[in-house]
Amino acid sequence: MDIRPTTADDLGVFVDTLHTAFARFPETPAEDGSGVWWSAFEMDRGLLALAEDGRPVGTAAAYSFELTLPGGAVVPVGGVTAVGVLPSHRRRGVLSAMMRHQLAELRARGEFLSVLLASEAPIYGRFGYGPATYTGRLTVSRRRAAFDLPRASGTDTGSGSVEVLRRAECGEVLEEVYDRYRRAQPGALSRPHRWWERGAGQPPVAPAPRHVAVHRDADGVPDGYATYSLGDGDTLTVDETIAVDDAVFTALARFLLGHDLVDRVVFKHVPSDHPLRWQLADFRAGEVGGDTDWLWVRVLDVPGALTARGWFADGELVLDVDDPFLGERGRHLLTVRDGKAECVPTDREPDLSLDVRDLGSVYLGGTAPSTLVRAGHVRAHRPGAAALADALFRGERAPHCLHWF
C-alpha cells in the first residue's frame, strides 16, 4: 500500500473514492464546481491510499482553520475531514497508516493541534483525539414561550432591531458577523471566505433557501443572525443562532418564538450552559435533546498547546502524557501564573497521568479532568490533584463549536 498527497487533478477520483467508502453518490455541483459540501477542499492537504495495483482505496484530507482558545488566542489548526476506506479494504491497516501519515504532515506544518468531527465515536480515540466540545438542541413550545422578567438589576435587555432577509441577500453580513462571533467564543472555528464563496458545507454556508433574521445594534451595525426554515408539522427549525453577546441572542430568540403559525421552535446547536431556558417563565417550555459531542481535539505538541491558551487560576501540575499511537511519552511541569503558562520537561513525580486523548478532551475547558479521573481514564497521584486540574483547565466560558466540516 502507498499513501501519497493529492493535487487538484485528483479531485474527481478523491470525491468518488470517498463517496464509495460510505455507499453514497456525489451530488452534482454547479458549473464552476461550487454548491456542494466538498467544494472547499484544499487538495494540497489531501491523501490517497493506493492498493498494490494503484487503485485508490482510502482518503483523508484537512482544512486550514483557526481555533479560538480559552483566553482569546486564535491559532491555526488542521481540520481533519473526508476520511474513508473502501469496504473491501477495511481492517487491513489502511486507516491507521493514513492517520499516522497525516499527523506527521500536520506537525511538519507547525500545527500543534488537530481537530475533527467524528462520524463514529469509537474510531478516533485510538488515534489520540478526544471529545472537547458538546452541543444539543432546544425545542421550545411557542404557546408556552413567554419570557420571564430579569430579576437582577442592571440586566442588559438589549437594543436594536431585527430584519428578515433571504439567504441570497446577505452573504457578506453572515460572514462578517460569524467572524466577529468566533473570535470571542472558545472552541469556535473560522469559516474561511472560500467556504462562503463556494457555498460549501451545511446551511447557512450552503446556498440552500433559508430565511435570515439579522439583528442590528442601535447604530445599525449587524451583530447577530439566525437562519431558519419552516418544516413539517408547523415546526420552525433554526440552523444556527450567532450573536456577539447574550442580549443579542435573546432578541433573536424572542423574534423567532413570536413567529405566527408555528407550534414549536427548534434551536439547533445550543450549548448546554446557555441561559435561554432560564429566561422562560415556564422552565419546562424548553426541552433539551440531542446532546452530543462535536469538536474532537488532538494535541500534537504538549508544551506548545498548553502555553498557547489562556488560564484563569494559578498553580502547578506535573502531567505524565502518554501518546500510544505515535509511541511517545513525556512528563511536563505546567506552571500557571497571571493567566499565562510555562510548560517544561521534568523528572518530578506526576500529579496526573493521562492519555493524549484525555488531554485533548480537557484542553478547551469543556471536560473536567476530575470527570475523567472518576471514569478511570486519568490517574490522580495525590489528593487534590484533580481539583487543582479542574480549576486550572476551566475556561472563561464553556467552549462551543457549531461549524460543520
Can you put this structure into words, describing what you see?
The protein is α+β, with helices and mostly antiparallel strands and 405 residues long. It has three domains: 2-111, Aminopeptidase, CATH 3.40.630.30; 136-291, Aminopeptidase; 302-393, Nonspecific Lipid-transfer Protein, Chain A (2-Layer Sandwich), CATH 3.30.1050. The protein has helices spanning 11-21, 94-108, 171-182, 193-198, 246-257, 276-279, 302-308, 356-363, 369-374, 385-393, and strands spanning 2-5, 47-50, 56-68, 74-85, 113-117, 130-131, 134-141, 161-166, 211-216, 222-230, 235-243, 264-270, 286-293, 295-299, 315-323, 328-337, 340-345, 352-355, 379-380. Belongs to the acetyltransferase Eis family. Homohexamer; trimer of dimers. This is Acetyltransferase.
List keywords for this structure.
single chain; 405 residues; alpha+beta; Aminopeptidase; Nonspecific Lipid-transfer Protein, Chain A; 3 domains; seven-stranded mixed beta sheet; 19 strands; 22% helix; globular
Instruction: Tell me the quaternary state.
Output: single chain
Instruction: Tell me the helix content.
Output: 10-25%
**Strand content of the residues, in percent?**
25-35%
CATH architecture of the largest domain: 3-Layer(aba) Sandwich
Tell me the radius of gyration.
Answer: 22 Å
